[in-house]
Amino acid sequence: MPRFLEVSDLHGWYGESHVLHGINFHVDEGEVVTLLGRNGAGRTSTLRAIMGLIGSRKGSIKVKGQETVNMATHRIARLGIGYCPEERGIFSSLSAEENLMLPPQLAAGGMRVDDIYAMFPNLKERASSQGTRLSGGEQQMLAVARILRTGARLLLLDEISEGLAPVIVQKLAEMVVALRKQGYTIVMVEQNFRFAAPLADRFLVVEHGEVIQQFTQAELPARMERLHEYLGV
User: What is the reported pLDDT for 88?
Assistant: First the structure.
């Protein structure tokens, strides 16, 4: 499969704080990759650096072969990358449907609203509800649905299962499986290992701003004991 994303020797800073210390990994088109690690390891900063949302960065970030490390965030988004941050960013003054329709279409092939509602029937039922009156799970669905409309084919998903009821987490897992079948490429940051474990093709362990281990779904059973040490799971 062609590489959708290739990150090489990526360093990142917030002001004078050096948080990424030479991140190296790649993601093939149509693949689901999960970044594992303790809080503060640099996983979210890696996603933010890919989008150009970190203070400064150096190294190489190639999207379908195109170097983006010096590119502005709005131009990176137009290459077909959608970022769903942990804080969701639902606007309280807008209805659920207005929140959904807010971002512009940045690339060809964005998911149609009817298809989004088929994937997230709760959102169709709550279309006219104020954004912040949705449940936590519905807000998370809305945050993901919003980037699917934009035409993004590489999805950066940050802790989408955090704090949600098990039934909602299961629906989000089904969403990831469905998107993978539709050819989306997904990079997830997840603290909920039970959620991430069955979904990813590959796992990357991040510690102190570096990728220190990587392994495939098939290798997961043999790596569990080591993962307990790294993650405390």
Answer: 86
